[in-house]
Amino acid sequence: xxxxxTGGAGYIGSATAAYFLRNGHEVxxxxxxxxxxxxxxxxxxxFIQGDIGDRxxxxxxxxxxxxxxxxxxxxxxxAGESMQQPGKYIQNNIAYSAVLLDVxxxxxxxxxVFSSTAAVYAAKDAPLREEDPLQPANLYGETKxxxxxxxxxxxxxxxxxxxxxxxxQCLRCHAG
Length: 176
Known about the structure:
The protein is of the alpha/beta class. About 45% of the residues lie in helices and about 15% in strands. The protein has a single domain, classed as Rossmann fold. Strands 3-2-1-4-5-6 form a 6-stranded parallel β-sheet, with helices on both faces. It starts with a strand and ends with a helix. Mean pLDDT is about 90; it is low at about 165-175.
């Protein structure tokens, strides 16, 4: 498979890119390097510096490569900062994810793995389970939950195929 890893210069994104490469996949990493590091990107991966909010750049990227799937790690993740700068998190995490999804689907890329967070769940003093209530305690967690819901709508309306646990629970809540 040819996989695009957004946010692939971050810790988890770069480790995931390396995993895919070890398993015989072609990997392109797309990152704006605002929080990630170019040196973290595996040498065998193709690196493209860009922002998921830049629709024109994404169009060029998807026209230049035949991706089979996207693994989406590009997000701001600081819970405290999200409470101080809500607009920054809403724009970067939610609006820019919508841009990515629109461009993916326009180019017939319908497979997505989304990196969510435990922050979508209500806090508790025991290990979290996928069945636990979805109740973010900060805007960061709320933006991730909103993206999960958005992906659910794209799946229902546009045939997007996705993977991540919290959305499955969210869909069960709304289905019954």
